[in-house]
Automatic annotation (TrEMBL):
Keywords: Lyase, Pyridoxal phosphate. It comes from Arsenicicoccus piscis. This is cysteine-S-conjugate beta-lyase. The keyword Disulfide bond does not apply. InterPro entries: Aminotransferase_I/II_large, Class-II_PLP-Dep_Aminotrans, PyrdxlP-dep_Trfase, PyrdxlP-dep_Trfase_major, PyrdxlP-dep_Trfase_small. Belongs to the class-II pyridoxal-phosphate-dependent aminotransferase family. MalY/PatB cystathionine beta-lyase subfamily. Its EC number is 4.4.1.13. Its cofactor is pyridoxal 5'-phosphate. The keyword Lyase applies. Residues 68-384 form the Aminotransferase class I/classII large domain. Pfam families: Aminotran_1_2. It comes from the Bacteria.
Length: 403
């Protein structure tokens, strides 16, 4: 009987040897937590597949697409009971490339799409590349700790009726960590169908729901959703493979597939690298136990952050997440400015995601990356607390001098 899978981390010193964006951008005394990549080592089956390829010198052009599509389909069936037709899976370098190609191929400058703010910053920039505008329908707080957010369906209906062409959905939601209910998704599909809106569901964080929380793929909720929806997936977030460039555009309706495929570059699938293909196959076929161990770790890190914030930063607000390794922290009560991340980096030497890049609702907020050892979470709150104390002491000194 094999040993249970574990999630392992390099030392802090070894992490600083990495050349990826998260670890190469800041000075060595900074705790970096803004970029959405994890600190863990690769799952062993993925590392083995990549080592074997390197040993063979197997770095030529990517192989035929169908084996990877079948591996992805098997993963979807096991994890979510979602039957994916491998022939309706189109590989692309990453979700960004898939969404941008879809927008560019199906819409025109001056068209508009709906987004739910605060939201992943590229949701503003991807459409803008082709002159497409965004209509913001902010997420709403519910007051329910079990499901602290919900879609503003009334606002969505008004936006859809105004003539928008598409709805770009972050599901699970980045940065809020909200998993949409089946009822919410059914309602979205019905609204989109009535108004002729295409739903583009970025589901890249789907495998990272916390234990006990189910992810509902948009294309599973109804025949209507299948007619109006395109989903985007990748192993990049869940298995820390973003640099290997491998993602999937998925449809569940043959007519829509034909429409979307015709709008894409015929060479889009060639943007996937051979190592990305091999890593994706290993992730989707041999790493379920490792993924479950990661989800348990993320639950511990989310809980640790909640507890540390409650103890050290009682005026801060952080609502429970149900997915992902990202957390949304409201520090506006501490008067660190519209962009607290600036003071936190300067004073506390902790780098966090800048709230205003997620939209105007991000003022006074930061996004925290919890894909790290648990003691880094404690260290991050300690650095935030020290920053707050330093800023308050400085302000008190100024007030005393002015008095």
């Amino acid at each position: 009987m094999s040993a249970p899978a574990t999630v392992e981390f390099p030392s802090f010193e070894d992490l600083h040897r990495r050349v990826s964006a998260k670890w190469s951008f800041y000075d060595d005394d900074v705790l970096p937590m803004p970029v959405a990549e994890m600190d863990c080592l690769l799952a062993e089956p993925i590392a083995r597949a990549l080592h074997e390829a390197i040993d063979l010198g197997d770095c030529g052009y990517p192989p035929p697409a169908l084996p990877l599509a079948r591996a992805f389909a098997g993963f979807c069936e096991r994890r979510w009971g979602w039957t994916v037709d491998p022939h309706q899976v189109v590989h692309t370098a990453d979700v960004a490339a898939g969404v941008i190609e879809t927008l560019r191929g199906l819409f025109a400058p001056g068209d508009r799409i709906v987004i739910n703010t605060p939201v992943y910053p590229p949701f503003f920039s991807w459409p803008a590349e082709d002159g497409i505008g965004t209509v913001e329908v902010p997420m709403l707080e519910t007051g329910d700790a079990a499901r602290p957010y919900r879609l503003d369906l009334e606002g969505m209906e008004r936006a859809f009726a105004s003539g928008v062409k598409a709805y770009l959905m972050s599901s699970p939601h980045n940065p809020l960590g909200h998993t949409f209910s089946r009822d919410e998704l059914v309602a979205v599909a019905d609204l989109a169908d009535r108004q002729g809106v295409l739903v583009l569901a970025d589901e890249i964080h789907a495998p990272l729901t916390l234990p006990g929380v189910d992810f509902v793929p948009f294309l599973t909720v109804s025949d209507t959703a299948r007619r109006v929806g395109v989903a985007y997936h990748s192993a990049s977030k869940s298995f820390n493979l973003a640099g290997l460039k491998m993602a999937h555009l998925v449809t569940a309706d043959k007519d829509l597939f034909a429409r979307v495929r015709a709008a894409l570059s015929p060479e889009i699938h060639r943007h996937v690298g051979t190592l990305g293909d091999l890593a994706g196959r290993a992730a989707f076929t041999d790493c379920d136990d490792w993924l479950d161990a990661l989800r348990e770790l993320l639950a511990v890190n989310h809980r640790t952050l909640q507890e540390q914030v409650a103890e050290r930063l009682p005026q801060a607000r952080i609502l429970p997440a149900t997915a992902s390794y990202l957390a949304w922290l409201d520090l506006s009560a501490y008067d660190l400015g519209d962009e607290p991340a600036d003071a936190l980096l300067r004073v506390g030497r902790v780098a966090l995601g800048k709230g205003t890049t997620f939209g105007e609702l991000g003022r006074g907020h930061v996004r925290v990356n919890l894909g790290c050892p648990t003691d880094y979470v404690v260290d991050a709150v300690d650095r935030i607390d020290k920053t707050v104390q330093a800023v308050q002491a400085q302000r008190a000194g100024h007030d005393q001098a002015a008095g």
